[in-house]
Design goal:
It is built from 21 helices and no strands. By secondary structure, it is an all-alpha fold. It has two domains: 206 residues, Growth Hormone, Chain: A, CATH 1.20.1250.20; 218 residues, Growth Hormone, Chain: A. Its main location: membrane.
C-alpha cells in the first residue's frame, strides 16, 4: 500500500465498499410514514385559498386572503418547530416506536378535522395540530440511522429526498383533482351529502387514509431500535440465571446509556453539522419558492411567462428524474466521493443554479418568448437540482455522526429538524420578497438583485461547509 492510500485511511471520503444488505421491510415502513406526512401537509395547497374565502374570515376583501392563508402555513411550521426537538428527546427516553407512531395517527385525525371544518379558526387549530404531529419526522431519520450501518446508510438516506419529491408531485394532484367533487361529478359524488356540505373533505380524507394505513402497518411491523431498550430486552430474555449462575457463560453487559442533558448537545461538531443542514434547508427552500414565481412572472417583468399547466409539467418531470437519479446513483456517489465532498459540490451546484437565472431571463427577453435556447439553458439550470439533492443524504450522515452517543441520536436529530424547519419557514418569504423588490426596481443591477444576493448567500454557506470534518468521529474511534 502506497503513502497516498495510507493517508486516506479512515477519512470521510473513504466508505467501505462491501455493503450490508438493507433491512428492506423496516426501511419501507419508515419511508411510508415519511411519505404520508408531506402528503397530509401539502394536499391543501391547491384549494387552501378558496377554503379561506369560504370561511368568510376575509369579509369579502380579497387582499386579506393571502394573509390568512399565510397564517395557516405559519402556524404549521411554528408548531412543527416547537415539537420536533421534544419528540426527538422523548424518543431517547421512551423509545423510537411509540413516538413515531404518534405522527401518522395524529395526521389522520387532523386531516379529517381540517376537511370537515367550516370556520377559519377551526382550520387554524387543526393545521397547527397537524404541524405538531409532523414533528415526529426527525425520529424517522433516527430510526434509519439505527437500522443501517456505514456501508448502506448512504443508499438509505438517498431515498429520503425522493420521498419528498414524489409527495410534492402527488399531493397537489390529489388536492386539485378531488376538491369540490360534488360540483365536478354531480351525478355520482354530488349525491353524497357530506361531500356537498364539505367540498374539501375528500382530498383530506384520502390523505388521512394514507396516514392511517401507514400507522397500521407501522403498528404491526415496526420494531424498536433504541439501544437502551434493546439491551434491557436482551437481559430480560436471558433470565435471572444468566446473571447469577457461575456455571453458565456470561456475556459482557452493554452499558445502558441515558439520554444526555441538553448542555451535552452544545458541542462544536453538532454546531457544524446542524449549521450546514440549516443553511442547506434555507438556500434550497429559497430556490423552491423562486422557481414557480420566476416561471409564472411575465417576460416583461423578468420571468418566463409560463402557464400553470407548463409549470406543473416541468416540475413533475424534474421530480420524476430526480427520484430516479437519487435512487440509482445517490448512494454510489456518496460512497465514491465521500459525504463531505458530495455535500460541498451539491451546495456549489445550487450557487450555479442561482447564477443561471439572469442568463435564462436574458435569453427569454431577447427572444420575447421561451424558445429553444431558453429551454436548453433552463434544462441545464434545473439539472443542478439533481446534484444538490445528493447533499441531503450527506448532511444526515454528519448529523448522526456528531451525536455524542447513540442515546442522544433522537435529540440531536430533533434539534437539526427544528433548525431546518425554522429556516425553511422564512426562506420563501425572503426570496419572494427580494424577487418582487428586484422586479419593482429594475434599475438596480438590471433587476437581478435577488439572484446576486442568493448567489452570495449560497457561496457563504459553501464556505461554512468547509468546516465539516474530513474524518468521521465514528471512524476515529475504530
Amino acid at each position: 500500500m502506497d503513502d497516498s492510500e495510507t493517508s486516506r485511511e479512515g477519512v470521510v471520503d473513504r466508505i467501505p465498499k462491501r455493503r450490508t444488505p438493507i433491512p428492506k421491510f423496516q426501511v419501507a415502513i419508515v419511508i411510508l410514514i415519511q411519505f404520508a406526512e408531506p402528503i397530509a401537509a401539502l394536499v391543501i395547497y391547491p384549494f387552501v385559498i378558496q377554503f379561506v374565502r369560504d370561511t368568510g374570515i376575509t369579509g369579502g376583501e380579497e387582499t386579506k386572503t393571502g394573509f390568512y392563508a399565510g397564517l395557516l402555513e405559519s402556524a404549521f411550521f411554528l408548531a412543527e418547530s416547537l415539537t420536533v426537538f421534544q419528540f426527538g428527546r422523548l424518543s431517547d427516553i421512551y423509545g423510537r416506536r411509540p413516538i413515531l407512531l404518534l405522527g401518522p395517527l395524529g395526521l389522520t385525525i387532523t386531516s379529517l378535522g381540517f376537511g370537515l371544518s367550516k370556520k377559519f379558526w377551526t382550520l387554524f387549530f387543526f393545521r397547527s395540530f397537524q404541524g405538531a404531529c409532523d414533528g415526529v419526522i426527525g425520529v424517522s431519520k433516527t430510526v434509519i440511522n439505527e437500522i443501517a450501518d456505514p456501508t448502506n446508510i448512504a443508499d438509505i438516506f438517498s431515498m429520503m429526498p425522493v420521498v419528498w419529491s414524489l409527495a410534492t408531485t402527488i399531493a397537489p394532484l390529489i388536492g386539485g383533482l378531488l376538491s369540490n367533487p360534488a360540483a365536478k361529478w354531480p351525478d355520482t359524488l354530488g349525491k353524497i351529502e357530506i361531500l356537498r356540505e364539505h367540498p374539501y373533505f375528500l382530498p383530506c380524507a384520502v390523505a388521512a387514509l394514507l396516514s392511517f394505513v401507514s400507522f397500521v402497518i407501522a403498528f404491526v411491523g415496526l420494531k424498536e431500535t433504541l439501544p437502551s431498550i434493546l439491551a434491557r430486552r436482551r437481559r430480560k430474555s436471558a433470565g435471572p440465571l444468566a446473571e447469577t449462575d457461575p456455571l453458565l457463560p456470561t456475556a459482557p453487559q452493554e452499558p445502558q446509556e441515558a439520554a444526555p442533558p441538553m448542555r451535552d448537545l452544545l458541542t462544536w461538531p453538532i454546531f457544524i453539522a446542524i449549521g450546514n443542514h440549516g443553511l442547506l434547508a434555507f438556500c434550497h427552500m429559497a430556490n423552491e419558492a423562486l422557481i414557480p414565481l420566476f416561471f409564472a412572472t411575465p417576460i416583461s417583468f423578468g420571468g418566463l411567462g409560463l402557464k400553470p399547466r407548463d409549470i406543473g409539467l416541468i416540475l413533475g418531470i424534474c421530480g420524476i428524474c430526480n427520484a430516479l437519479i437519487q435512487v440509482f446513483f445517490g448512494g454510489r456517489v456518496i460512497r465514491r466521493f465521500g459525504p463531505r465532498r458530495t455535500f460541498i459540490v451539491g451546495f456549489c451546484a445550487l450557487a450555479v443554479e442561482f447564477a443561471m437565472y439572469p442568463l435564462v431571463r436574458f435569453l427569454a427577453q431577447r427572444a420575447g418568448r421561451v424558445d429553444a435556447a431558453v429551454r436548453m439553458a433552463l434544462a441545464c439550470q434545473l439539472s443542478c437540482t439533481f446534484v444538490l439533492y445528493f447533499s441531503y443524504a450527506s448532511t444526515m450522515i454528519f448529523i448522526m455522526d456528531a451525536a455524542p452517543s447513540r442515546a442522544s441520536l433522537g435529540s440531536v436529530n430533533g434539534l437539526a429538524q427544528m433548525v431546518g424547519t425554522v429556516l425553511r419557514s422564512v426562506a420563501p418569504s425572503f426570496s419572494s420578497s427580494l424577487f418582487a423588490l428586484s422586479a419593482e426596481h429594475r434599475e438596480i443591477v438590471g433587476g437581478n438583485l435577488v439572484f446576486i444576493v442568493l448567489v452570495v448567500a449560497t457561496l457563504g454557506a459553501v464556505r461554512f461547509s468547509l468546516l465539516l470534518p474530513r474524518k468521521l468521529r465514528s471512524e476515529s474511534k475504530e
